[in-house]
Amino acid sequence: MMFPEIFLLSLGTVGKEVLEWLKVPLRERFGGVPVILPSSPLPKQALNLERNQYNSRVILNWLNLRGYPSPLLSLVDKDLYSPGLNFCFGEAELGGKRAVISLARLHPGYYSRPPDTQLLRERTLKEAIHELGHLFGLQHCPDQFCVMHFSHTLCDTDRKASLFCDRCQRKLEASVQKGN
Description:
CATH topology: Collagenase (Catalytic Domain)
CATH superfamily: Collagenase (Catalytic Domain)
Mean pLDDT: 94
Strand content: 15-25%
Oligomer: single chain
Largest sheet: 5 strands, mixed
Strand order of the largest sheet: 2-1-5-8-7
Number of domains: 1
């Protein structure tokens, strides 16, 4: 399956090494060539001081106003929330152009566990593929092992695979053929 370029953007202090690593599995999964854009600071207006979290929708709106190329996956190292949720691992515009994921709650250290680079990478990849799936028109899947299953908790993220179930894979391929 071949997708156009996927653009990767660090917002804040996510290291370029994370983006460089992510390029390889995303190229394997989606085809095309992931392109790393120059990093940018997090938009200050997205910070909710009372919650000490960043509003993912404000970030997506900010990205749209900046005119970044698409499809764009941005990564942040701060905790995110979306209106109506206590937190979110990420958010995307369904069938749109922009997505954001947070690494904050994907780090074992967030839960007072020892660092585990491999586990962090697995979680990051799952969330990246999930949000890109939304950009390519996929909705949440009831199959708890499909990467498109909604993660209410980190256990949900750890349980699911980094792969699309057969049904979501067919939808994704149909979306590509339509030119989404």
